[in-house]
């Protein structure tokens, strides 16, 4: 509600999420780096006018541009403090006018007359000096009102072409005030603020020429003024927060940061988004027309009667016959409605967004809760093989739920949690290597149909989101990652000589041939991981560059690929060893039986538990994310293998699974992708707020919708996969050509769009 009016909210309301972390009402505040601040304010003139409080705000503001600057190093001339950035022409001035009087009016008037260059940003505020020197008299307040009334039209005139902010006075901590300031009471400050708001608001009839009231500082001061050194001036952290708010108000519409939704206009629809909107609209209309025709035909068939016998004749069709076209339109109809919800949540300024804020309780309490639920829904498995379907679904399910909690709680700032989540992502890729290797090794099916089915199921949702949400393919990094690794697994096993289990059973030498293939794969991975230039050259050629570039380069793709570069190979090798042991009956997979002999099982179980805990201790003791990321690709497999052995060696543990986790595991890919826009917000940087003011209720409602949407998209993808990817090779080839034409057209429209932007 009123999600689009974020500038007013940013300037007037908010709350502290934690110490020094300010959350504006309804929107996200970006934390500007000094380089970003310089780019925003290049060729800009910023002026602060007022008393010592405004001077301190001025100091905090210039430190956003140059953190190394010292307050005593700023040039001062007759009450004028001036700073000019060396790297860019940014002029910032503080003008000492502690009272709203004729002198201040004359200075402001000079800007309106054109005799002096008009500033781009003007920040004004004063009152406490008037209260002090006039001993809080009512006559001083009356004169203050007269002076503001005379200045208001001038400020309004400046506001037509400049950003003008009137800073309301912060409350004071009366117990700490010196004797010379005891007359500055909160009651007097409220009276001066009330006068300023009433006069400035009543004079501003034109919304474009409105003086913006900077009242949020009062709310910040109410929480922090007790930490003031003198009871009058805010502590440094509060002044820095006010300066960051000012920077967001002015710069967000210029810099358009992803995690700064405050004061950002809604992005215009691109040409591709308009085409997608028309397509989904036509699909909805087409589905409604066809379903209406079929329903009428069904009613006619049902009501036909044998007039001679007087008995109902058996209808030609007993149930509505859903044609392929109707099912196709139905899928696109539902998908169109879902994509509309996606767009409204994360592109339109309809719903509110808030920043994440990490606390240990916000992460660990939900983890405990879902683990209890998972254990409660325990059932027997249909089969007791290692990593059977129910078990892998369960594994994917609980990992996905933990990752979701990790994202919404902002736990990436806590390094031990981050390192454990990295293992969960690696475990997904491990399953990719294990699952696809097992399929190709056992089935020996290297047909185009299988490849297209897998690629369609992996990429369909992401391709649609790239079009609807105007995001590059690499933005949804996990799908490109599993897609590329699937193709690598396929190429490794499909290339001559094709070695599958059936062929290897006839001659053991084929096993060595497969191991040689795996060694060649490992060598290629190793070489590419230490040759960034070669890697970037491979993925910088068109059309690969269109898929894997993010912000104009493939560095992000290089980082993501390198982070888990060995784990898919580990999954393939584990599958090969496991299937070999299974073939030679060296493991026991009966219900309730340990995987090996009791002695071997106990030893392996002990080693697994120790290895699991050792990795957790190492990850929890990490101090540097970069160093830990360097070790992660080589050591993540330790905890993954330890978990597999702990989960599968005891027969009674292998024979049960959590149906709760398994249900989520079946839609884990959709959950991972959908969270970007309809559970989180601002492309995962914030949290979607459907119900403001009630955080827990909001999470419950948004989570329910999010899970339902993910489940529905999973069903739509499965239905479309059966229609779009036929088993007939000739038909499949024609459709592949059509898809290639579609993406060529998409590339053309994208090029036209880029040209129009430039």
UniProtKB/TrEMBL annotation:
Protein topology in the membrane: Multi-pass membrane protein
EC number annotated for this UniProt entry: 2.3.1.45
Protein name in the entry: N-acetylneuraminate (7)9-O-acetyltransferase
GO biological process: carbohydrate metabolic process
This protein's UniProt keywords: Acyltransferase, Glycoprotein, Golgi apparatus, Membrane, Transferase, Transmembrane, Transmembrane helix
InterPro entries xrefs: Cas1_AcylTrans_dom, NXPE4_C
Similarity-based family: Belongs to the PC-esterase family. CASD1 subfamily.
Catalytic activity field: a ganglioside GD3 (d18:1(4E)) + acetyl-CoA = a ganglioside Ac-O-7-GD3(d18:1(4E)) + CoA; CMP-N-acetyl-beta-neuraminate + acetyl-CoA = CMP-N-acetyl-7-O-acetyl-beta-neuraminate + CoA; CMP-N-acetyl-beta-neuraminate + acetyl-CoA = CMP-N-acetyl-9-O-acetyl-beta-neuraminate + CoA
Domain NXPE C-terminal: 22-74
Cas1p 10 TM acyl transferase domain sequence ranges: 255-736
Organism: Edolisoma coerulescens
